[in-house]
Structures are given as structure tokens and as C-alpha cells.
Amino acid sequence: MTADSPIQNKLRYYHLANAVLMSNLIANAVGNAMADAFLYHRAPAFLDGTLFFFNEVDDIVGGVWILVNALIIIWYERPIRKCLYRFRTGEPQDSVQFSTAKKRLLNEPCFIVIFNLIVWTSISLLYWWLGMPDILAVSFCTGLITVAMAFFWVEHVIQHHLIPIFFPDGGLSRVPGVWAVSLRTRLGALIFAVSIVPMALIHMTINRFHTIQAQGEMSETDLLSLLQDAISLESLVFIGMGIFLSLMVSETLRRPVEEIILSLTRVVKGDFTARARVYARDEIGFASETLNLMAEGLKEKEFIRRTFGRYVGESVRDEVLKGEIPLNGEFKQATILFADLRNFTPLVESTPPAVIVYMLNAYLDEMTQCIRRHKGLVLQFIGDEIEAVFGAPMGMDGHEYAAVRAALEMRARLDVLNNRLEGREYARLNHGIGIHTGQVLAANIGTRERTAYSLIGDTVNTASRIQGMNKKFKTDILVSGDIFEKTKTDFEFIRMPETKLKGKNRSVPIYSLPTPHYTIKSISLEATGSV
To answer: Could you identify which of 254, 265, 288, 528 might form a hypothetical disulfide with 278, taking C-beta atoms 3.0 to 4.6 angstroms apart as the criterion?
Structure first.
């Protein structure tokens, strides 16, 4: 037996293995006692010899019935009992036997109904064959009530004790060959057992005493007294049986409904790990399994949503998912930022792979945080290069200022990262940043299998080439003349010598941001990965 076994001791094993058998035996014992009580309180309807003969036959039939009942149910439950034994010992389940056990477990309430109907009908017909038609009527009506009681009792035991063991993750509806009992059938059986059958039996009692009155066998006073006692007893028994069955059915319905309500409450609060326990293969059980599938789907969608947000930023993600951002192409005024590590290729050749991965992930993580903090969007990582945009896909006032502030913070955070790397005796990192603003074509570009939000146009190419000029000017942040004109009142710039960029026919004004210019009071460094 293992620690995670659902059956931890022999006592629980024997209780679970015999719970259905004992429930059915007790239900039938109660039904037999009801039949005896009804017959004795209708004693004037029978001859003394008939009652004596009934007692003799009833004792024999009762003993045979108990033996046959036990043997047939034990035979039916053989796969179930074997699986319970394996649960107790911790042995692995045989897949074929386990499938058979689950199918029989779900079908057992219906099997109990059919078995008990056959037994009680056979006994009733036996009394009719022996010349006791009045006993046949009482036995048959009591048998119908007993069948209903056994069904609801056995179903209660199976749902609350055995199904959680055999179906810990639900999936009752996926078991083939199961007789599903709908809520309408259950409620119809309950009404039939607690109202129609009792009223029919009371009506037969009154009719039988009326026959006795017509025959003049007893005085009206004595007959009325006996009739009152018989009806009072039957009414009390039926009231008690109705309360018992109603409580059993209400408990059977209450627990799965509460599970659904609790799980829905957790899902509404954002806990998509909530799962409702499935107790039955009916409408409520179907609702529970549907709820679990819905929660699983929401969990997957939330994972996708969070993952999407990691790549495009939470604000952009929310706008895209709401359909506020057209992805089929639009012209936007935006600012483009490129950042690229310097002399990284020689560093890769001389540094262990694990260290390189740690350093690169740490750098990209720190720089991405800076960009996102200023409402920028990282479009892609190209090796050790970062392409980011400010002002697209969501429009933003002052996107030029945001890009410059992000670049200055990237410079400061790189200093913090380098201090951390030097503490581990790793090489320092250096990068160059280029910024340009202008019109871009923003679109969802790619194949039918894979697309990406991309920017196209001269503005993008210019920003990339300005970034490359850091190598020539030995700087770390360069901006275009357009950025300078938009932000010169807020930042200090140094005019660089005019130069021609690749693909340009004339010189382009370029400005650098001197060092130091921007400081961060408190920065927490949490690099991705570890070495």
C-alpha cells in the first residue's frame, strides 16, 4: 500500500467493497418488514391458516433470497472488488479489468433495479400461484417502493464513496455502454414511490375492508377500528419512507450542484484551476464535465494571453484582443529604436556557452523592461539586436520623448548589469542605440502558418543605420535630426559630423546623447537564467 493510495486500511476496503451489497440487503429487509406489517394489520382479510402458511413460506423465501442476492451482487461486482483490492495494495490496475469495473460501477444502480424487480415480481407471483392473491398485491406494491429505495440508496453510496476513487478526474460520460438515468426519470421514480404506490396500497386496503364489511364477518365498530389502525400504520410508514427518499435524493443533487457553484465562483475570480467533482452520468454530471472543460479552455487561453503579453506588452495585447488595432496594414507616425551589442561575436567564441546564454538573456531582459516601461513594443530580437517601436500599434503622444527616455534608461541599466557581471568575473557588455521617427507601414506580415507584427519603410532602415554609426563615432546613443528637433528642449545633445547613410543620396544630421545624463536611483536586477 502506498501513501497516495485512496484506500489506506482494511476496514475502509471492506466497507467500500460491501457498501452496495449491504445497502441493497438493508433496503430489501426494510421492504420485507413493511410487507409483513401491512399484512398483519390487514389480518381480518386472511384466514389464520393462510397467514401461518405465509409465515412458513416467507421464512424459506427470505433465506433463499438473501443467499441469492449476495451471490449475484458479488458476481456482478467481481471486477470492482478486484480493482478496490489493487487500490488498497497499491498494485497497478489492469487496464481491461479497470475499464470493465468502471462500466459496471456506473451501471450498478440500474442493475440493482432490474434484479430487485425480478425478485419481488417472482415472489409476488409465487404467492399468487400458492393461492394468496391479496398477499400478491401487498408484496408487489411494497416491492416497487423497495426497488426505488434500493436504487436511490445504492446510487448515493456509489456517487459519494466509489466514483471519487474510480473517477478522480471525472470523465464519466466517456465510458461506453452505460445506461444513463436522467433527472426526469429519477424524479419520476421518486414521485411514483412516495405518492402513487402508497395511495394505491391504501386504496386497496380500504377496498379490502369494504369487502369484509359486505360479507358481515365483523362488527362495523371493530372493522372501523382495524381499518383506522391499518391506514394509520401505512400512512406513517409511507411518510417516513417519503422523507427518507426525499433526503436521499436531495443529498444526491445537492453535492454536485454545490461543486458546480463553488467551481464557477472560483472561475469568475480568475482561478482557472477550479474543477467540479463529477458524481453522476446525468444532466448535472454533464454540466460538471462541461464546466471543467470550460475552465481548462480558459486556462489555456489565459496562458496564451499571458504569453502573448510577454512579446507585445500587456497594453498592446489587450487592444489587439479587443479588436481595437487593425493588423491588415496601416500607416503610422512612430519612433523606431534599434539596440545592438558591440563586439559580441568575439565574446561568444571565447566564453562558455552557458555564460553567454546567461549574459545575453540578462541583457535582453533588462533592455526589454526599459522599453516596456516607457510604453514601447519590442518587435523582435535579431540575435543580440533589439528592434522596438514607440507609437505603434497604439498611437501615443510624445513617442519621440518616450524613445529617448527609454534609451537613457537602457544606458543606466546596462551599467548596473555590468557591475553584476563583473562581480561574477564576466566580461562587460557594450551596446549602441539608434533612434529615428517618421512614417511606417505597420502590418501583420508572414505566412498562413505564422505571422508577426512588423514595420516597413525608410524610417525603420534609417533607424537601423543610425544605430550602426555608433561604431564610427565611438558613442552609445545616436538620434536623427527629426528626433533632435522634437526633443531638444528636454535633452542635451551633441551634433555629430554629417555623414551619408547607406541608401541615402545626401548627408543626414545625427546627434548623440552625452554620458552621463540620466540616472536611476534604485534598480533591481533579475536576469533570466542562472549560471
So the answer is: 288
Average pLDDT, the chain: 81
- What DSSP element (H or E) covers 347? helix 344-350
The whole-angstrom separation of Cα 274 and Cα 379 is: 35
Residue 517 CB coordination number (10 Å): 13
At residue 313 the predicted structure's pLDDT band, cuts being 50, 70 and 90, is low
CB atoms closer than 10 angstroms to residue 448: 5
> Using an 8 Å Cβ cutoff, are 392 and 325 in contact?
no
Which residues of the chain are in CATH 3.30.70.1230 domains?
A: 314-512
> How far apart are the C-alpha atoms of 473 and 515, rounded to whole Å?
14
Contact 279, 248 (CB under 8 A): no
Q: Residues 314-512: name the CATH superfamily.
A: Nucleotide cyclase, GGDEF domain (3.30.70.1230)
Q: How many CB atoms lie within 10 A of CB 47?
A: 10
Please classify residue 75 by burial: count the beta carbons closer than 10 Å to its beta carbon, then call 0-12 exposed, 13-18 middle and 19+ buried: exposed
**Reported confidence tier of residue 317, pLDDT bands at 50, 70, 90:** low
Residue 107 · residue 76 · CB < 8 Å: no
Q: CA 530 to CA 436: how far, in whole Å?
A: 35
